[in-house]
Structures are given as structure tokens and as C-alpha cells.
Amino acid sequence: MKYSSKTLEQAVEAMSALPSIGKKSALRLVLHLAENTTDKRRRLASAIMALETDLKTCEMCHNYSDSNVCDICRDKSRSARTVCVVESVKDVMAIEATQQYGGVYHVLGGVISPLDGISPDDLNIASLIVRLKEIDVNELIMAISPTIEGETTIYYLSKLIENLDVKITTIARGVSFGGELEYADELTLGRSIHGRVEYSHNVD
Questions:
Q1: 144 and 126 belong to one structural domain
Q2: With contact defined as beta carbons under 8 Å apart, do 89 and 111 qualify?
Q3: What φ, ψ does residue 83 adopt, rounded to 5°?
């Protein structure tokens, strides 16, 4: 597409780099911003810049936060003895939307995937082990997407902490194999959390 403005073209290119936004959608969004008030553009720009300057990562669970420790970890009404291990912040949001979980989280930042060059050292595993040793954790819920990489990650973690006195559970299979938690509906995910089962890494 030929653009009459280099500024417009650069804005479309930047917008289309976002997930699920093609060139046509990006152009519609950019034209909408160009045709609207300066205040709307400034508010959008300010909100985006705040992601770089103000957004933090929780020192305890690696969730996004406005402070060094997120609201969930600070909430005294939640059980710090139950830790739900997830791949990403998106999974925290998906589980929170079910309103069926009252513990805390630990965000790994992905799953072990040798084909993608992701090893255990690339994930927030070391900090999880520190948490388990420093806090009297009773249950570790593996709320990780049921993919081959997810199952590999669960197995790796279970072997790593098998000498610690921590019960390991996995969410019930309401979420189909190969599916991702963020795309599961709230009812299904809520039932999967409630119906979690104890994990065994023994191979028959």
C-alpha cells in the first residue's frame, strides 16, 4: 500500500506489529487516532509509555504490578501456603476471573521447550524453589497448559522438589490437551481448579 505520509506509514507498521492486528486493522486504528482529538492520542501515548516507566514485576511471584510486591501477594486474606504455578501473567488473569482460587501465584515466564531454545534456566524456577524453602507451602498447583512442553515442565518441577514436603497437584482435565488456559472459559477453568488432582511423576 502506498501512503501519502511517512508518519502515517510508520504508525501503521508499529500498530501491525501487535498480535492479531493486520495491516488493514492497523490502518483503521491509526486513521481513527489521526481523526480524533489530541487528548485521546495523548492519553494513549501516556498509557503506553507508562508500561515502560511505571510497570513493575512482583519480586515474589513475577506478576505485573505497580509496586515491588503485587496486590495478590500482599493480600492477607489469601493463603500463602497454596501456590499456583502458571506460565504467564495472562494465566493469572484467567484464573482470577473465575473467582474460584484464594491462594497466591508463581509466574514461570514460559515452559521448558528445547526446540524453542527455552531451558529451565530461562524460567523463574530458582525463585520458586527459594519460596518453597522460605515459606511453609502446603500445596503447589501446577496450572500449566496441558501441552507436551507443559507436561515436561511439570515433570521437571516435580522431580526438582520431590524431597520437599509439598503436595503437588494439577488442574483437572476440563482443559483439553494442547489447549491454553487463557482461552478456556471461566466455568471450565474454575471447575478445573476446584477439581485438581494430586500429581504423580511415576511412569508405569
A1: yes
A2: no
A3: -115, 125
